[in-house]
């Protein structure tokens, strides 16, 4: 098996000055840009004067960061632009006048809700870190004493040691609702009790299987349970993958932790939107991706998390992404 997609190498080096005059650089990383097309009125966010918000910055070198502020007013009744005043960004060097800026509605979201329970951060966790007056995307790379963590901030391309109070789990404001980031759902799946209580499958059951084959890692393939094969293992027969001689469908013994029921069908009425998590059907399996661009004729450009690549798919070859978590299907 070969790698399923062609790699499109794209690196950028960007620099600019932030409010504290610190020079920063942009690390090579693919960022999705939110669509600025007019949304349907059914889920378009409406913000009121005085409402607390967080503002994303579209300037180069600042993408992926969020700054706290307050809505001053909507610029006009029939526009999607708002005047906001930042909490900690200033309009002058003296630091006496807070910066006000007109931004598009897609750059605004309410402040994220606090977690329902205390978060136990660990190495490799994706986080948002409060630094240089804003919340930045990063990942924990080491744990220090005194409740401190070394975090690699992608926007600064450097390692910063921060206290636990300056970290939070990433979430997304999607069509008027808070939804967990895909990485968070996967983290919960890894830490859940369900991952230790292996599900039992019966002969003839239709399932999906995660394989360890090179070039196919991260993809789910349709299969049928043939019979149990040792403790928490099953002999399965793929429904699309064939043996080397191409004479019959491939059979393998798979650990139960890499088997799940087939996800329920979700009817997509209005198509997908930028940022939607999807599964794309390619090389006989379903690959996890994110809608990067909406094209014409029900076609979409999909960015693939696992491989840092993107390609074009028709709506017929896409489905909303679902995660099997604690015995339930979750849509991240």
TrEMBL record:
It comes from Linum tenue. Residues 45-116, 119-175, 199-267, 270-326 form the Agenet domain. This is Agenet domain-containing protein. InterPro entries: Agenet-like_dom (IPR008395), Agenet_dom_plant (IPR014002).
């Amino acid at each position: 098996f070969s790698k399923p997609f062609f790699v499109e190498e794209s690196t950028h080096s960007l620099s600019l000055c932030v409010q504290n005059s610190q020079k920063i650089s942009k690390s090579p990383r693919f960022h999705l840009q939110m669509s600025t097309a007019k949304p349907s009125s059914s889920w378009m966010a409406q913000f009121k004067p005085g409402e607390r918000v967080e503002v994303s910055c579209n300037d180069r070198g600042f993408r992926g960061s969020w700054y706290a502020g307050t809505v001053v007013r909507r610029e006009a009744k029939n526009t999607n632009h708002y005047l906001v005043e930042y909490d900690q960004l200033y309009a002058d060097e003296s630091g006496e006048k807070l910066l006000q800026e007109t931004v598009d509605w897609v750059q605004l979201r309410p402040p994220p809700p606090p977690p329902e329970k205390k978060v136990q951060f660990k190495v490799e966790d994706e986080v948002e870190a409060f630094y240089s007056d804003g919340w930045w995307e990063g990942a924990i790379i080491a744990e220090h004493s005194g409740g401190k963590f070394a975090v690699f901030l992608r926007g600064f391309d450097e390692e910063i040691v921060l206290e636990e109070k300056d970290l939070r789990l990433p979430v997304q404001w999607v069509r008027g609702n808070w939804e967990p980031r895909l990485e968070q759902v996967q983290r919960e799946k890894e830490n859940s009790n369900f991952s230790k209580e292996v599900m039992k499958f019966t002969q003839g059951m239709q399932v999906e299987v995660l394989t360890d084959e090179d070039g196919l890692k991260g993809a789910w393939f349709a299969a049928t349970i043939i019979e149990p094969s040792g403790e928490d293992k099953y002999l399965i027969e793929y429904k699309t993958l064939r043996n080397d001689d191409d004479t019959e469908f491939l059979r393998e013994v798979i650990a139960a932790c890499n088997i799940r029921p087939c996800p329920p069908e979700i009817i997509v009425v209005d198509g997908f939107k930028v940022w939607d998590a999807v599964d794309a059907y390619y090389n006989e399996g379903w690959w996890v991706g994110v809608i990067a661009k909406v094209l014409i004729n029900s076609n979409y450009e999909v960015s693939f998390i696992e491989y840092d690549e993107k390609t074009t798919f028709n709506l017929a070859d896409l489905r909303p992404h679902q995660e099997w978590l604690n015995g339930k299907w979750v849509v991240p």
